[in-house]
Amino acid sequence: MRERLKQWARALKQNCSILLLAMKHPRTPWYAKAVGALTLLYALAPIDLIPDFIPVIGYLDDFVLVPAGLWITIKLVPPEVWAECEAEAARLALEKPPKDWRGVILIVVLWITLAALGYRILRALNSA
Questions:
Q1: Distance of CA 77 to CAs 5, 28, 69, 89, 104, Å?
Q2: What is the full per-residue pLDDT of the chain (128 aa) written as tens digits?
Q3: CA 85 to CA 18: how far, in whole Å?
Q4: What pTM was estimated for this model as a whole?
Q5: Do residues 22 and 82 lie in contact, with contact meaning Cβ atoms separated by under 8 Å?
Q6: Cα separation, 11 vs 67, whole angstroms
C-alpha cells in the first residue's frame, strides 16, 4: 500500500512537470492551458479549499481536485503534444535544475506585505 502511494505521488509530480511544459507549448489549445494553469495554481497554492489540519477531509481536496485537473488537462492537450512534453520532461529530469529564486522572493514579499498590512490593521484598531 505504501509503495503504491509513493508511485502515485511520483507520477503526480511527473505529470505536473509535463503539464508545465505543455502549457508553454505553442500547439496546446488555450482552454487546456487555462485548465492546466488553474490546476497548477491550486496544487502550489498555500491555501486549500478545505484546510489540511481537518482530519481526513483536509487532504481530500488535494487527492481529488489536483488529479482531476490533471486528468482533464491531459485529455484536452493533443496526444502528440503531450508525448513531446513527456519526452522533454524526461530529458530535463536528467539535468541538474537551475536555481530560480523568483518563487522564494515572491513568497517572502507576500508574507512581508501581509505582515505589514496586519500590523497597520492592528494599529488602527488599537488607536480607535
A1: 26, 6, 12, 16, 30
A2: 778 877 877 777 788 889 889 999 999 999 999 999 988 888 777 666 677 777 777 777 777 888 899 899 999 999 999 999 999 988 887 776 666 777 778 888 889 999 999 999 999 998 87
A3: 6
A4: 0.62
A5: yes
A6: 10
